[in-house]
Design goal:
By secondary structure, the protein is an alpha+beta fold. Helices cover about 35% and strands about 35% of the residues. It has one domain (about 1-170): Gcn5-related N-acetyltransferase (GNAT) (Aminopeptidase, 3-Layer(aba) Sandwich). The protein is globular.
């Protein structure tokens, strides 16, 4: 059974744990170990996650498979991008699944959940940044109708950035 729930501040430790593991699994080979650990320590700590729950535009959702945590998503409503002229658009900031849950269509379910949530909030589209080297994710988003509309350097550390596509799906 698959269950998606809205996260709140009491889930911050779980988000830290899943985010840390999923980031290492998906991006751990993209930079030096020191750079990856630097990014994780700044991004996936309880204080940083708790602070995000104070932002009314941010929504975290957890996805469970047969009672086990499988991943999470984070969207930011009404978040513009310089490559997109539309107003009232959502940023899909994170959608992470633990490797053990790949191949179960959970990413698609969580993605569709966020699309519907964004539409219910009267948004006109959704955008994201995805690492160019993550071919699986780029192909997934293109199959879902996203178009590459720009580029972005994702800063992992003071000395390392990964090139990203900015992708957009208009509703």
């Amino acid at each position: 059974m698959v269950e998606i729930i809205q996260a709140n501040a009491t889930h911050s430790n779980l988000i830290v744990e899943v985010g840390t593991q999923a980031f290492r699994e998906s991006h751990g080979h993209s930079a030096s170990k020191a750079d990856i650990e630097s990014y994780i320590s700044k991004t996936y700590n309880k204080e940083a996650i708790l602070k995000e729950f104070n932002n009314e535009k941010v929504r975290y959702h957890l996805i469970y498979c047969d009672g086990d945590i499988a991943g999470f998503s984070k969207i930011e409503l009404d978040t513009s991008n310089k490559n997109i002229a539309d107003l009232n658009i959502t940023k899909l900031d994170r959608i992470y699944l633990l490797e053990a849950f790949h191949g179960k269509q959970l990413g698609s379910k969580l993605f569709q959940f966020n699309i519907e949530l964004s539409k219910k909030q009267h948004q006109n589209g959704i955008w994201l940044a995805v690492w160019i080297e993550n071919k699986k994710a780029v192909n997934f988003y293109q199959k879902m109708g996203f178009k590459i509309v720009g580029a972005f350097d994702f800063k992992i550390s003071e000395t390392h950035s990964n090139p990203n596509h900015i992708m957009h799906l208009k509703y």
